[in-house]
């Protein structure tokens, strides 16, 4: 077992002592407390691999139980190299584990499969063969393709959540996911070349690279690597062999965040998100203005200066959490101060504009504020996007 506390450190240990031929497939299996599934999974994988296909297996483990020791014992009776990377810092959850596994393996095909046997081990040769035949860079095992089924999704609730999140994801990436019926699949094979391309891009551009967050690692790879050629292999999602699912409501929220970040990774999409969040900030701002001018004797210009702070806070919270998740410079408080300063700078333009509408055109302060907000809006995006987040 290799134990790493620094996720970028550590080396890979192989349990096979004899020199083995270069593997064609690196099978990466993320595990979180799956001790009771390991024997069954490794037996299944061994039985499924046809003669002539070289496979190395790497478990990337974040367990708190004895899963790594169980894997080591089972590995001894496997014909192929099997190793475990245990992470002391489980950064990025399931997706982070897969990316750590990608970095520590080398075969031209990378395959990912869960440890609980919901993905039948026979998929391994099937996916690789389908990818080779079609010269595709990505092969997705799909529950939703013709001939597949989601039998093992327990209960109407999980079926509904899975269906809704698949539909939402496909609607956010209509072109990219055109040929993918199951973008949430946890079982797929991708050519290393495609991943390397995205990682290299990440070094030169802030928008490239991999930033996995939780369960949906396939989505991360499909969006960031833009694989050339995608095919699907239908399969029947089985019942869990032992133990229970590790997915939680918290994991669901993480997924929404992941989606928001992936969708806003280019500047144009970010501008749309900025606009939507900004417009939503009009609501607290105008409500506060309406309340302050109604309930106090404050001058409307002073009331708007105060009311604006509520809108600023609202906008910052949503932007900082959803749109600018990674690559945040400095501390939260520092970003809030910078953001608030820029957001309030617009008052210098807005207050005179607003007074013009009120004094000269006889408008009420609330409609005058609406117009002033819209006018100054575009300017604000450009300033925040370039000065606070340096995109
Ligand atoms: N290393 C690591 N770290 N592994 C994890 C973590 C983690 O934080 N969380 C879960 N895993 C491992 C589990 O041990 C299991 O091997 C695999 O990831 C999947 O976890 P499950 O909890 O069994 O997920 P699921 O059955 O609800 O959903 C799976 O299948 C769906 C259909 O393919 C996931 O793969 C989903 O992403 C997928 O949509
Ligand atoms: Mn499962």
Automatic annotation (TrEMBL):
The keyword ATP-binding does not apply. CDD domains: DPM1_like. The gene is mppG. It comes from Streptomyces hygroscopicus. This is Polyprenyl mannose synthase MppG. Keywords: Glycosyltransferase, Membrane, Transferase, Transmembrane, Transmembrane helix. Residues 274-387 form the GtrA/DPMS transmembrane domain. One of its GO terms (cellular component) is membrane. Residues 26-196 form the Glycosyltransferase 2-like domain. It holds the Pfam family GtrA_DPMS_TM. Signal peptide: none annotated. It is a multi-pass membrane protein. InterPro entries: DPM1-like, Glyco_trans_2-like, GtrA_DPMS_TM, Nucleotide-diphossugar_trans. One of its GO terms (biological process) is protein O-linked glycosylation via mannose. Belongs to the glycosyltransferase 2 family.
């Amino acid at each position: 077992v290799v134990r790493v506390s620094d996720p970028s450190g550590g080396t890979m240990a192989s349990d096979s002592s004899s020199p083995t031929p270069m593997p064609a497939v690196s099978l990466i299996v993320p595990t979180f407390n799956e001790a009771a599934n390991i024997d069954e999974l490794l037996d299944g994988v061994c039985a499924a691999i046809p003669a002539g296909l070289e496979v190395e297996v790497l478990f990337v483990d974040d367990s708190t139980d004895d899963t790594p020791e169980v894997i080591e014992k089972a590995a001894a009776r496997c014909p192929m190299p099997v190793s475990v990377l245990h992470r002391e810092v489980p950064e990025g959850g399931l997706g982070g584990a897969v990316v750590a596994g990608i970095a520590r393996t080398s075969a031209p095909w990378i395959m990912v499969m869960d440890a609980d046997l919901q993905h039948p081990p026979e998929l391994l040769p099937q996916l690789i063969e389908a990818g080779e035949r079609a010269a595709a860079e990505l092969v997705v095992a799909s529950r939703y393709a013709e001939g597949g089924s989601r039998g093992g999704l327990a209960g109407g609730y999980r079926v509904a959540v899975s269906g809704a999140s698949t539909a939402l994801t496909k609607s956010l990436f209509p072109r990219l996911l055109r040929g993918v019926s199951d973008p949430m699949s946890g079982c797929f094979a991708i050519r290393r070349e495609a991943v390397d391309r995205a990682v290299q891009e990440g070094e030169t551009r802030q928008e490239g690279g991999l930033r996995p967050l939780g369960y949906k690692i396939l989505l991360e790879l499909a969006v960031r690597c833009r694989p050339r050629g995608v095919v699907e292999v239908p399969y029947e999602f089985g019942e869990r062999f032992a133990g229970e699912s590790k997915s939680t409501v918290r994991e669901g929220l993480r997924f929404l965040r992941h989606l928001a970040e992936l969708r806003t990774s280019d500047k144009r999409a970010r501008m749309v998100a900025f606009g939507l969040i900004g417009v939503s900030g009009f609501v607290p701002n105008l409500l506060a203005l309406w309340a302050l001018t109604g309930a106090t004797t404050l001058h409307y210009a002073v009331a708007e200066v105060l009311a604006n702070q509520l809108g600023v806070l609202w906008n910052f919270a949503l932007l900082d959490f959803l749109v600018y998740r990674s690559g945040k410079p400095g501390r939260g408080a520092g970003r809030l101060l910078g953001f608030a300063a820029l957001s309030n700078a617009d008052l210098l333009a807005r207050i005179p504009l607003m007074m013009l509408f009120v004094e000269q055109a006889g408008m009420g302060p609330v409609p005058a504020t609406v117009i002033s907000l819209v006018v100054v809006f575009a300017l604000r995006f450009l300033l925040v996007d370039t000065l606070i987040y340096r995109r």
